[in-house]
Structure formats: structure tokens, C-alpha cells
Amino acid sequence: MKILVIGSGGREHALVWKIAQSPLVKKVYCAPGNPGTAELAENVAIAVDDLPGLLKFAQDNAIDLTVVGPELPLSLGLVDLFEDNGLKAFGARKNAALIEASKAFSKDLMHKYNVPTAAYGVFTEVQPAIEFIDRTGIPIVIKADGLAAGKGVIIAQTREEAVATVEDMLSGNAFGSAGSRVVVEEFLKGEEASFLAFTDGKNIIPLASAQDHKAVFDGDKGPNTGGMGAYSPAPVVTQSIHDKAMAEVMRRTVDGMAAEGRPYRGVLYAGLMIDGENVKTLEFNARFGDPECQPLLMRMKSDIVPVLMAVASGDISKVQVEWHDKAAVCVVLAAEGYPGDYRKGDVISGMGDAAQLEELVVFHAGTKSQDGKIVTNGGRVLGVTALGTTVKDAIDRAYQGVARISWPGMHCRKDIGAKAMTRG
Length: 424
Fold this sequence. Notes:
Elements: E1 2-7, H1 10-19, E2 27-32, E3 42-43, H2 51-60, E4 65-68, H3 71-76, H4 78-84, E5 89-90, H5 94-101, H6 103-112, E6 120-123, H7 126-136, E7 140-144, E8 153-156, H8 159-170, E9 182-186, E10 191-199, E11 204-206, E12 211-212, E13 215-217, E14 221-224, E15 229-232, H9 239-259, E16 266-275, E17 278-285, H10 293-299, H11 304-313, E18 327-334, H12 351-355, E19 360-364, E20 367-370, E21 373-376, E22 380-388, H13 391-403, H14 418-422
Parallel strand pairs: 1-2, 1-4, 2-3, 4-5
Antiparallel strand pairs: 6-9, 7-8, 7-9, 10-11, 10-16, 12-15, 13-14, 15-18, 16-17, 18-22, 19-22, 20-21
Helix pairs in contact: 1-10, 5-6, 7-8
């Protein structure tokens, strides 16, 4: 088989890494890819939003399966285009990817199909939004409706901050067209977890549990990022929480999307807030999380290719997915200034030393090759991901790898996985 992976981040490097291990696969391409994917696949200089270019490449090269990493090509209808031209593609069609592309659609869907979530309002004008803020109280969560690369969520701690955020999003257009409509919702207390599942629109296969770390600084302080690290399994997802998430979140959402005439095929990601035995849904993503994808794929025992093919073919009823008992931890190394304006072009050293460690992979996220060296080219630059017999072992090994890597201004969280340790 020939497989094309679309995207250029850490998630896509992890997908290429896992797909390339399959005995079913003869050749892997990645568009546009990064220096990490280039070691395992042939990179193709086609942008993720160049749908005609991607289609032509897939047709010309007789690609058997295209795996879509990021949300943008899904929301633009890449899967629709490929399927309409007789090509297999793993990912949600455009009308189903709306579950991530529009926070308002997602919240309305949850409300309609009784998927537990926070109380909310959807606003296009400032004054009604302020009135909702005053009724609901502080802290409060304000989200840009559209795609904002994981950064369009503000948790306002004061009324002044909440009002300024709404005004900025709706009037100042801080997130461009993504913020022309905002969702304002009550702040939920508890611990977050990432719950992902493969689905063919009817059957659902859960992935192992995981937990992301969104805030940029230790102790969940500072602004939200695309994710500063993740680990799996997440002890907060007990068996009873898992069962509740499957029944009340995944089952109702997959059935609801089918009832809406938007059958959901691909991987569905639910961000959950867990408070005791109480589970509420924060958001949905229409793809693998980044960085959750990295530790999850390192823990996946099964060959991923038959799973991806079964989803793309519309029937996963005969598929089983096995997981290693080991834990995995991914620590994201970020560029100076991230998640604000960040530097590019700094030479990265020590990646080869880190890769010498057993059961550790350095996934490239925001890198490029320049004059024979690997340099920083994004906010989140690398994802140092390690396996261990316990979460603590995996944490220790990941940070051993981190200690070997450097560039000017590099920063990372030092507490990835710490919440798992407090749960024993």
C-alpha cells in the first residue's frame, strides 16, 4: 500500500512513524511534512489547504489511503473531494468536521442530544454577551466560534477581562473570522482528560485515555497553547468514567451526528471535564489531538493501518485495537515567546543524543532544515515522547531526553504527568 499523510506537525510525524511500521505499507508520503517525517517518508511540498494539488498528487501516485492530520483540510472538505473522486481518505467529511470548525454548532448539538456540557450562550453582538456574563458570573469561558489553532479559548478571571475579551473578539476581531461569533459558557471545575475514539459513523472503538496540558506554564498557569505535553493512560479516567464517557458523550454524539445527516467517520476527540463521578464535555475535535497523538501511538500495540482503512471504508465492526501496558509521556519543547510572537531559525542541538535513549522518540513539530542543520520553525518545536513501565518511569525518561536538547530560549513545562502522580 501507498499512504499519504497530510500535515506538518508532531501529530503527523507520529502518524508517519506508526504507519511506516506496518508490513502492509510499501511507501509513505507526507504533505508537506517536516524534517522528522523526511526520515521515514517522502515529503511532498503541497500545502494542507491546496486541495486540488493534494488530489492530483494522490491520483498521479495511486495512493491507497490518505490520512488527514490537521483540522483545516477537514473543514475545507478534503475528504469529500477525495471520496467523490473514488479515493479512500481517513477523516471526517466537511459537514461532520463542523463539530470542531464551529463551537456554536458543537454546543447546540450537545444541547439537542443531551450530551453533558456547560451552560452556554452564542453571541454575535457585544451587549447580549455582557448580559450573559453578568448572569453567569466569574470566572467564565469565552471561545472564538471558528478554528483558532487551539488558542481561541480565554478563561476570564474578572468581569473586566471577560468584557474586554468579548469586545476584542466581536469588534476588534482578535481571531479574524474565527471570532465573528463567540460562545460564552460557565466555568467548569475539575480535571481535564482527552477521550478519543475511532468511529465509522455507527460503531465506536475507544482509544486509551490521555491528558493534555494546555496552559503554557507549570501548575496550569498562563495563556492556553495548542498543548505543552500529554501522557497516557490518565488515572482520572476510571472504568466508571470511561463507561460514562462512552455512553453519554461518544454514543450520543455519534448517534446525534447521524440523525442530523452528518455521519461522523474518523477519530472523534472529546475534551472532558471530570469532577468526581461527574463528566461534562468541554469541546470536540475532528482529529487526533496534538500532542495526545504522540503518546497514544507509542502505546498502540496494533498495526494502525487496518484500523485507518476500516474507518475510511465505513465499517470497523470487525476491528480490535490493542494497547501496551506501558505508560507514555510527551513533553513539548517550545520556542521563546510561544504562545505569543516567537523566534524562528535557532539551531537545535542534542536531538541525536536524546534519540539514543531507549523507548524514546523525538517527534518534530515546528522544525525545518537549513544549511544542513535543523532549526526552529514554529511555536511548538519538538515533542519528546517516552515509554515507561509506569507514568513516573515515562516522565523520568522523557525529561532525560529533554535535558539533552537545547536552543536559545527553549522552554517547556516541568510538570507534565504530575497529576497522574498525585493519584498514585
